[in-house]
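Task card 7
Instruction: Convert sequence to structure tokens.
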Amino acid sequence: MELTGTFISSLGELKEALKNTDKLVIVYFYTEWSPPCRKIRFEFMQAEQRYPENIYLAANMDSAKSMARKLGVTLDNIPAIVVFKNGKQIYTATSITAAEFNKTDYVEEVEAVPPDSAKP
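Output:
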């Protein structure tokens, strides 16, 4: 199944997506060639349908390494999800499996994070 959605590859594109929104922004870091990334792709697209009130972005590590590195994501820890609220990085899950992704209601977890604990 081919990944669908909005794709980003730079910090500028991410900053633009984060600008002026109070929605959760979930960025999925992946590669086309990674078996674990291919396995979690479906779960990411399902979450996009289950939680339409959020913004979902996908970043291919082959073209987004610099942005990923600044957010603490590397080729060694993908697939990864980085969540933002009000322009701040507030949750990161790395090296996750499809089972872990489905087990974790990251949207609920993120909403429980106190605002002062978010990274700028």
